[in-house]
Amino acid sequence: MNQAQMMAQVKKMQAEMEKAQSDLASTVVTGTAGGGAVSVEMTCDTRVAAVKLAKEAIDPDDAETLEDLLMVAFNDAVQKAQETSAKRMSSVTGGLRIPGLT
Predict the structure, then answer these.
(1) Distances in Å between the alpha carbon of 10 and those of 2, 14, 15, 70?
(2) Rounded to whole angstroms, how far apart are CA atoms 13 and 93?
(3) Where do the domains of the chain lie?
(4) Burial grade of 82 (CB within 10 A; 0-12, 13-18, 19 or more)
(5) pTM for the whole thing?
(6) 26-87 is classed in which CATH architecture?
(7) pLDDT (tens digit, 9 = 90+) per residue, 43-82?
């Protein structure tokens, strides 16, 4: 492979990575806790899109339980976003591990 072919291949991969990152920014995953009493919608670039609380999750006398449910739901959403991002970026890079992308 000559240098011009390699540069063309690198540019193609860069374009595919930019498209993948754009797609991930609009892909929404949902993390849940408490059997769905708390849900967090998050894009795969980890921006929170929505937080939903069922009425039964809100007890003014027990804020700690709601805090725990929120933490679990956020962590669930982050994990799903990271897994989705890693899978998508892996398809672009052909499994090549590039620091900072997965």
Answers:
(1) 12, 6, 9, 42
(2) 7
(3) 26-87
(4) middle
(5) 0.79
(6) 2-Layer Sandwich (3.30)
(7) 999 999 999 999 999 999 999 999 999 999 999 999 999 9
